Each structure stands twice: as C-alpha cells, then as structure tokens.
Amino acid sequence: MGKSLATRRLGARLLFVAVLLAALCVFVAACGGSSSSSSSESTSASEGSGSSESAAATEGGGEEEGGEEESGSSEEGGLVYFMAPNTQPERYIHQDGPDFVKAMKELDPNIEVKQEVADGTSATQQSQIETAIANGAKALVVVAADPPSSAGLLEFAAADEVPVIGYENVPLNGPLTSQVIFSPLSAGEQQAKYFSEQVKEGKLGPTPVPIVRLYGNKGDVYEVQMKKGQDKYMNPLIKEGAVEVTCENYVKEWAPENAQTDMESCLSKNADIRGYLGMYDGDVAGALAALKQHGLDGQKVKMFGGQNPELSGLQNLLLEEQQDEVYKPYPVEAKAAAELALAAVKGEEPPASLINAQVNNGADTIPTYEIPTIYGHLEEGVDPAALVQKAVDYGMFTWEEVCTGEAAQTKGCKENG
After folding, report:
1. Does the model's pTM come out above 0.85?
2. Domains 53-60+75-182+330-371 and 184-327+373-416 share a fold
3. CATH class of the domain whose range is 184-327+373-416
4. What is the DSSP letter of 351?
5. 35: enclosing H helix or E strand
6. What is the CATH number assigned to the segment(s) 53-60+75-182+330-371?
7. E-only strand ranges, 125-242
8. DSSP code, position 124
C-alpha cells in the first residue's frame, strides 16, 4: 500500500506540473499573439519612396478572433492595390484613392490597401503590377494608364490568378473580374446637348459658330465613349452648318499642359473662335490659359466640357469662365470598387446588386457597375455658387479649398469661403 500511495503522490505532482506548464504556454501564446496583432495593424503609409503610397486598412481595427492568424488578418483579409494612371487627372490621387481606402476599411478592417501612381504608360503600370503580385496582392483595382495597350498587364495578372477590377478609365483587351465606371457616354451626351441648345438659342452668336474641340487621350474608354456621346449632338450641328470646327486634337494623357499646347497651336492658325468643347476640367483649364495668352478669356469664348470636378473647374465656374460641369460623387464609385474587390479576394462572383451592365472590353464581356453622371451648368441670373456647392455636398472639395486666388473675390466665396 505504501508503494501505491507513493505512486499516487507522484501522479498528483506530475499532473500539477502539467497544468502549470499548460498555463504558462497559454500566457506566452497570448503575449506573442498580441505583439503580432499590433504589428499587423500599423500603417505603412510612410514606407517606401517615390510615387508609391500605402495605407493599412487595419488601422483602428478590432482584435483578431481566436488568435489563430499570426498576421492579425481574418480569412477575408489580405493585400489589395489601388493603381492610379498618372498624376493627372488629380482625382485618383487626392479623392478616389483615399475614398477607396476608407471604404475598404469599413468593409474589412483586416485588408491592407496600397496605392501606386504610374507615369501614364502601360509599361510602368505593368511593372508596378508585377511588384504588387510579388508582394502578395490578392486583388488589383486598376485605372488604366493607357487602356488600349493594357492587355499585357491584364494577362500577367491572370497568369498568376490575381483578379483585376477595372476602375473608371478601365483597362482593355484582357481579362477583368469586373469593373466600375461613371457612364462616359452619358457625360458626353450631357455636355454636347447643352452646347447644342446654347448654339440654337443664339448664345454663341450667329451661325456658323467657329469652335475648337479637344478630346481626351486617344483610344481611352472615356475618350471614345465621350466623343460618341458628344457627336450625337455635334454631328447634326456640323452637318447643318450651325457649327464650324476650326481645329481639333487629342490631349495626350489628358494633361492640362498638353491641352494648353494643343489650344495654342489651334489659335496660332485661327484665333477667331467663339466656343470651345472639351472633355474635362483639366483640358478646359489648359485651353483657357492659352486663350488668355491671346488676349481672350472665357467670357469672350464660351468654354464647355467640364467634367471630373477639379479646383480649377470649380473656380472657373465661379468666375463664369466655364459653362458646365459633369459631377461624379467619387465616394460612390470607390465604395463600389471596394465591394467588387472584396468579393474577388474571397473568390466570389461580383455582387449581383451592383452589376447593371455587361460590357465587351475587346477580349471578353465584363460584369460592370455603370453609375449615372450628374450634370449642371451656368444659368442667367443664378449665382454659380450653387454649382460649387454640389461638389462640396458630394464631399469632393471644401469651400476653403475652392476659394483661393482670383476666385476668392467672387460673391460665392465671400459668402461661403
């Protein structure tokens, strides 16, 4: 019996030691898990150099469930890239990118979003995509730097089974999981319809009205579709002799400085014009700068074609040197892109509630969320401040940002700035 008692005592001691060791392991694991979670939640916005920006959507996120993932990410977590085409238009860097980060953080705080800015070439954008995939990207949201030549980068991503979501100026001629875009056809129709009405009402003087037309980057989805929309109203005007297009050109990379150069070239051939039809705020601003070098302005030459609200466009509206604006609530598009990207990360089909069109991109039919555009224009006797207020209400800019320079002296800025 003594031996049996000793055995029982030894067993009790061993049991106690086992329990103590188990408790110690739990404590160590808990400490290690806390450290890993903290590391994964830190922002990487200050890391790297050049045009690459990064913001971790995990900032301020909740604790990981069960402590099973060392990175602190849920099964739906991972790395997603938002890829801008260039520094122009400015919206993709200052509005769409940050809006996308915010939307993704709200959908899944464990997803990290990095932003890249190309130089207007598909070669650079493909290099960035290759790096993103090497870094473990689970999805890419791409505003194409040069849509007609983007097949290579799409095929590269497809070969690595990384889903690509097209955004606004979408890539062409290759596989896409889905895409989101404000309707460029509608935007062009809205601009030219109002322009046509103004011509017919005699607001631009007797016919034929001599004008300059500048388009976007040749071959881009936006350029092609907007021109199609504009031509629906412009071709009849031209055919009946109500309008004479004295000069036209495509603005490389949509850059305002290129629009200014193109406009200067047009004016050097014939400065006797009464109207201008462009495609977005940046080319209107560039063309207006060229006009002023020739002693003209937006009062003498009516400037149409505002779109993608920029500070220059909103200021020109206040100064009544730009006639119209196509509004695009960027947060709406960014949120839709985040939902499409999250579905792609999970390996799911695009949400049926978003998809309202099927668009052929030259290689396949792409599930598309097409968002209607909103149009506004100057009205006689109405303060143009109301047009700026729309952009403020959509969260695009603040009055403080708009009311600088010459615009600060306008009635709208004095009352709201």
Report:
1. no
2. yes
3. alpha beta
4. P
5. helix 2-40
6. 3.40.50.2300
7. 137-142, 164-167, 178-182, 209-215
8. H
